[in-house]
Amino acid sequence: MKVFGYFCAGANTKWGLDHPDLSYEIRGCHIPFTTQYLDYLCASISDAIVKTKMDGFMIDWMWNPGGSDKSPKWIACEQEMYVELMNRPFPGIDNITPELDQEFRRKAINRLWRRVYDTTKKTNPNCLIWAICYNVNSPDIEGSDMFREADIFMNEEGDVTHLEDIRHIIGQHTRLMTCLARWNRHDPKVIIPQALKANIGLFGFTKPQIKSLLPPVSHYLSKPVDEFKGDDRIISCFARIYNGLALDNTNH
């Protein structure tokens, strides 16, 4: 069994508290990808790889603050980023066109990926990078090297169609994966057969809560999938697939 770590690129409460001038309000995706932050993130990644000997890590929230569909507010550190990334003086907030805004956001994410990838492979060439993305067609990541360089590329939105749309631009070694979770509202009985047919990996997760330890696999096999709701329905499907059983199998 491979052991993976996890890094959330766009959010880190400690960073936000320690560097309020380099962060938005600490809520959601709040970190501009400044050189200072990338130095910190990459040092953390390298340190974790060396100390834990992990096989790889998932990197999440590779988005600019506000998400992929909102412009930056152009706080001071983002204006400095503009000079670095665009190789020209910052023109003033009122002079930022949608085209300049898009170019900036794309370059910010490209620089993030370049730093993360190079740091990882320099530290351990065999360490796997598991990139995840909610909107694989976002213009913010259009043309990004992550598509061809990621060892695993996961569509967090959960469908298979969007992964097929990008199959022609991923690397030969890149393993495609899709995610099933209650919030993305995809029917596991539909998505799982599609993914298996297309050789797309499966992943699922749920929010940990008090007393949320799961019952044994036998519980999820004890009745038909359709009698389960929410996360339990997804887990009941996974329990069957990972044990080589049909989705309509019921172990009385």
Gist?
The chain is α/β, with parallel strands linked by helices and 252 residues long. It is built from nine helices and six strands; from the N terminus they run E-H-H-E-H-H-E-H-E-H-E-H-E-H-H.
Overview of this protein structure:
Helix 3 (76-86) crosses helix 4 (98-123). 27% of the residues are buried. The chain has 9 helices and 6 strands. The protein has a 6-stranded parallel beta sheet with strand order 1-2-3-4-5-6, covered by helices on one side. It has a domain at 4-150. The chain is an alpha/beta fold and 252 residues long. The two termini are 30 Å apart. The chain has helices spanning 13-18, 35-52, 76-86, 98-123, 146-149, 161-166, 188-197, 217-220, 230-242, and strands spanning 4-8, 56-60, 128-133, 152-155, 175-180, 201-204. The protein is 39% helix and 12% strand.
Give a short account of the largest sheet.
Answer: 6 strands, parallel
Number of helices: 9
**Classification by helices and strands:** alpha/beta
Strand content bin: 5-15%
H-E string:
EHHEHHEHEHEHEHH
Number of strands: 6
Provide mean pLDDT, rounded. Answer: 93
In quaternary terms, these chains amount to: single chain
Computed over alpha carbons, the radius of gyration is 20 Å
Instruction: Order the strands across the largest sheet as they lie in space.
Output: 1-2-3-4-5-6
Which percent range fits the helix content?
A: 25-40%
User: Termini distance?
Assistant: 30 Å
Taking pLDDT < 50 over at least 5 consecutive residues as the criterion, the unreliable ranges are: none
What shape does the CA trace take?
A: elongated
